[in-house]
Amino acid sequence: MKKNIFVVTNILLCIIIGLIFITKLPQQLGIHWSSSDSPDVYVNKFVGIFIFPIAILLTWIIHSVIFKKMIKTQLNNLILNILTGTYTVIHLFLLMENLDVLNIKVELSGVLIGIIIIIIGNLMQKAKMNPLYGVRTTWSMKNEEEWRLSNRFGAKVLVAYGFAVILVAILLPKYFFPIIMSLLLIVLIVVVYASYYFYKKSLKINN
């Protein structure tokens, strides 16, 4: 992995802030809130302060090993930095919530999921045909042109879905998972059908 000062700084920042407040944090940290605005998932505080530093490190490894060959270096680094910064912000909000500094009504995990979906969607437009990532259907894998059309359309739908996830997390946190799962089903159906449509359309043109 190449040296990335921003990523390393965020890992250290998360750990240091967690250790500074370790004595003031409750023994069990709430990491997920139910529809009644009370924590329903807890972890030991010594585990909790390292969740996001580890998530940042794993994201760094994945981007350095997997996405390195699929995406241009500058774009890959930009996306990695956005994810890293997002993880750090969520980490700070989580600590503040457990310190009773603020009262979060937003489904934070939903905001994070939405941001990641938007980033993944944008990446799909530039990804080359591969066995791991993108709109990989029987039709999109026929040739480079089908891949390009399917992934360009799929990327737009996925980005729209990502923004929808963020809005639901902010406006309707109590119904977050039922709504986003229903929307996800619609997204999958639309993207798969679009891939089939592009393939059939290309057959008509070529014939």
From TrEMBL:
Q: Which keywords has UniProt assigned to this entry?
A: Membrane, Transmembrane, Transmembrane helix
Q: Where is the signal peptide?
A: none
Its transmembrane ranges are: 7-26, 46-66, 78-96, 108-124, 153-173, 179-199
The GO biological-process annotations, alphabetized, read as:
response to toxic substance
Query: Which Pfam families does the record match to this protein?
Result: DUF1648, SdpI
Task: Enumerate the spans annotated as DUF1648 domain.
Answer: 11-56
InterPro entries membership? DUF1648 (IPR012867), SdpI (IPR026272), SdpI/YhfL (IPR025962)
PANTHER family per the UniProt record, alphabetical: IMMUNITY PROTEIN SDPI
Q: What is this protein called?
A: DUF1648 domain-containing protein
According to its UniProt entry, this protein's organism is Heyndrickxia sporothermodurans
